[in-house]
Design brief:
Layout (H helix, E strand, L loop, with lengths): L5 E4 L2 E4 L19 H15 L2 H4 L5 H4 L1 E2 L3 E2 L5 H11 L3 E5 L5 E6 L11 H4 L13 H10 L4 E6 L2 E7 H23 L3 H11 L7 H26 L12 H18 L3 E8 L2 H8 L1 H18 L5 E6 L2 E7 L3 H17 L9 E7 L6 H10 L3
Parallel strand pairs: 4-5
Antiparallel strand pairs: 1-2, 3-8, 5-6, 7-8, 9-11, 9-12, 10-11
Helix pairs in contact: 1-7, 11-12, 12-13
Length: 379
């Protein structure tokens, strides 16, 4: 059967000889040339309708996945797959067995391999998958960690969509478009102008130098507090000072990794890095030293991790690092590297020392148990 034997319908492509085994979906397909634009506009409307999706980082895979992905049976030939990818401008095809069960993924990279001439021989398996309710940031971690650009979406054992890097680009475009609209609104917002006018009016020319200095300091504190309040209202999943993940996002990532550990046996480790003498430094030197200290340690840890590892601020003096596909010995080596990097640091006004420890996730662990074992290992 040649490529002309392929039948496309309802957003799902099947081979005509097996159409009775692989039924098409009922939804109408979007034309390739209008698909990205239509999807971007639909996502933009969804973001505008629910501001908390962005403001509280609640975007999930279901918000941007492509529904009704193109699939082929395991018997599809190399020629058929190549022609289908070319015609539909696709980089991936999902391979489904009987009953819509996902069995593998064929990418355009697989077509260049010498593993065989059918989908079953060419496909990568078992495929990394996620659910529709997987947080977007976690799905991105999966894509980066596995060095893949396609993530099948499975709900209760059935394939319901696919998340690709193209979907992420469309999301970024929609987000930027939304922020641009917000910026245009803020340009006409007179709140900040009125606040600045009030501050300026409070600066009396008859003040002494000391009074003027106090008034300026109070004005600066008022503006700083307003900015801090705005950041708190936005509640992004990032530590405000360092820009890395915060405790809530860390718990989300650990919850997903523990689920993958229990289901698929994929190992991972958790490392904790603690700044030595942190309270003493804060009491004696104040925020002027503590803030750059925390930023330096965050950057130092980020420079030590691989793509796909996740760094977060765990508490005031500590950072946590989730290390997917990492056994305990390698996690301990990571801790030694971070401690050595701290000893080599010469950029701060105080001597930088850190303690670190790691624990490898076990099947029976929950988040608190894993964190407790990692904390106990700190030395």
């Amino acid at each position: 059967m040649g490529a002309e034997g392929l039948i496309t319908g309802g957003g799902r492509t099947v081979l005509d000889s097996t159409a009775h085994q692989y039924p098409t979906t009922a939804s109408a397909p979007i034309a390739p040339e209008s698909g990205p634009y239509a999807k971007r506009q639909q996502l933009l409307q969804e973001l505008m309708g629910d501001s908390e999706l962005l403001l509280k980082n609640r975007l999930e895979v279901r918000h941007l996945m492509t529904r009704g992905p193109v699939t082929v049976p395991p018997t599809a030939t190399l020629e058929e797959i190549t022609e289908l990818m070319r015609r539909r401008r696709l980089h991936h095809l999902l391979v489904c067995g009987r009953g819509e069960e996902l069995v593998g993924v064929v990418s355009d990279r697989d077509l260049c391999s010498s593993r065989g001439t059918t989908a079953q021989q060419l496909m990568s398996y078992p495929p990394r998958t996620c659910s529709p309710n997987t947080p977007l940031n976690v799905a991105i971690t999966f894509l980066i960690n596995d060095n893949i650009s396609c993530l099948p979406v499975v709900d209760e054992g059935r394939l319901c969509g696919v998340l690709t890097t193209t979907d992420l680009v469309l999301t970024l475009q929609s987000t930027l478009q939304l922020w641009m609209r917000l910026a245009q609104v803020l340009q006409h917002d007179q709140t900040w102008t009125k606040e600045l006018e009030k501050i300026a009016a409070s600066l009396d020319g008859e003040m002494s130098a000391e009074q003027l200095a106090r008034q300026i300091a109070a004005a600066r504190e008022a503006v700083r507090q307003q900015v801090q309040d705005l950041v708190n209202r936005v509640d992004l999943n990032a530590d405000v000072l360092t820009g890395i993940g915060n405790r809530r996002e860390l718990e989300d990532v650990l919850d997903l990794l523990l689920g993958v550990r229990k289901r698929f046996g994929r190992t991972f480790s958790l490392a904790i890095v603690v700044i030595d003498y942190f309270d003493r430094i804060r009491e004696s030197c104040g925020d002027a030293v503590v803030r750059p200290l925390l930023k330096t340690v965050a950057r130092m840890i980020e420079d030590s991790v691989r793509r796909g590892d996740f760094v977060a601020r765990w508490r005031d003096d500590a950072f946590a690092v989730a290390l997917p596909e990492t056994a305990l010995d390698d996690a301990r080596e990571f801790c030694r590297r971070v401690q050595e990097a701290a000893r080599q640091n010469k950029q701060l006004d105080v001597e930088l020392r850190v303690s670190a420890g790691a624990a490898e996730a076990e099947p029976a662990d929950d988040i608190l148990q894993l964190l407790a074992r990692a904390e106990e290992a700190v030395s």
